[in-house]
Amino acid sequence: MAVSPSSSPPSSPRPPRRRLETGEVRRRSYLFDGLGAFSATSWSPSNRSTDPTPFSWHHVELPKGGPYKLTHYAQSLIELLSPPLKLHEILDLASNGPYCAQQLDGTLIFRVNSGGPIASECAIRLAVRVTENSVITVSVGRVPRLGFSDQNGPGSLLTEIPTVEGEKEGRVVIAEHVLEDLLLMNHSEEADNPVPTRVSGLVVHIIDTHVDQLHDIVTRFEMELDAVELQLDKGGYLLRKQMLDDRRFPKMHLDLQRLLQVVSHGEQVFPRVKEKCASKSWFAIEDISALEELIGRLRRLKENLGFLTNRVAALQAGLDSWQAEQINRKLYYLSFLSIIFLPLSIVTGIFGMNVGGVPWTNQRNPELKGGFMKVMFLCAAVVLLLLLCFMFPSIYVWFLSWRTNSALKRSSSFNKRPRRNVLNGNLRGGGYVRI
Fold this sequence. Notes:
Layout: E1 26-32, E2 38-40, E3 55-62, H1 70-81, H2 87-94, E4 97-102, E5 108-113, E6 126-130, E7 134-140, E8 162-164, E9 172-174, H3 176-184, H4 199-234, H5 237-246, H6 248-277, H7 285-351, H8 371-415, E10 419-423, E11 426-431
Parallel strand pairs: 3-7, 8-9
Antiparallel strand pairs: 1-2, 1-3, 4-5, 5-6, 6-7, 10-11
Helix pairs in contact: 1-2, 4-6, 4-7, 6-7, 7-8
């Protein structure tokens, strides 16, 4: 797997980003001075420093989708991170499932890697290696708001005074698709991220962006479900049939289960991360409280995912009941036709017997020329009798409803009739009398 070339020299505040091509791995490297400033540096994770005040962060973004396997990702990590990482550390970062462990030298490694298909949007993979003066993160696909922007560069789009397309000039024009993307975000841009002054703040920032990414996916699911419910309310036979053929809701239910698995991994790993970081002297107490708040957000997000799963199951149950109703209706029509033609086939079978004594079958007798018409009248009478038997319940129900409505109208007109009361010998208007 090819690896992108090294980023720009330290003089550049932010390395230029290229478009991710097939088989390419993106990487970023930052150096923080511990005073609220940072700079983009060249890729050198092997550099070690005994001073904890300036700390470094190296991030590897592996390509999402394509015919890639875990072995391909492990090979890329070996090329990029070895040295200083050993093979067991790289395997800990690249493997599936939840993991949190502390090595003998105090290095903390944790991951929340989903075991689903890598190309799936809900298969989120994030692994972190933390030491006293360095952080190494590995993700599959882009994590929104994970990086930092130069404070001296252009400001955030959210701080501008916007205008709609085609309106006033001199302002920042906001396109419609940009507004749609901003409405789906639960966070600000990279330019609004506060620069951490210690390693513990950087760890909290990484976990915070992970929770925000999960929240963004849940928000998109909610908006998609709202749109689907509106389509089902307005749509007809073809729309429901298309949703059943595309297996729309089973796929959504599977994605929700994958996302629920990622949230469950975080619910298992992050409390252990908080417990292990609480014993470290370089991890600030306020950052421990921030981790506790993020764990609470993750638990609330898990409850919200349960509600979404119930909504998807309800919509799928509604489609299944509609499909069963359509099948029952077709079977009803088929049964109705078979009931009509069964007596007719009996009549025609009787008159088609090649035996003597069958009435109206002597073709040479001039007195029996109307036999065919008599048989047709008999068949029509049978069909009318069957139709009357089918229609009698509907006629009876209509008659009962008409009789009930008539009785209610008579009762209502009687209640609205004005009454007069005689009180102390004087005739006074008493208004309406309620019954």
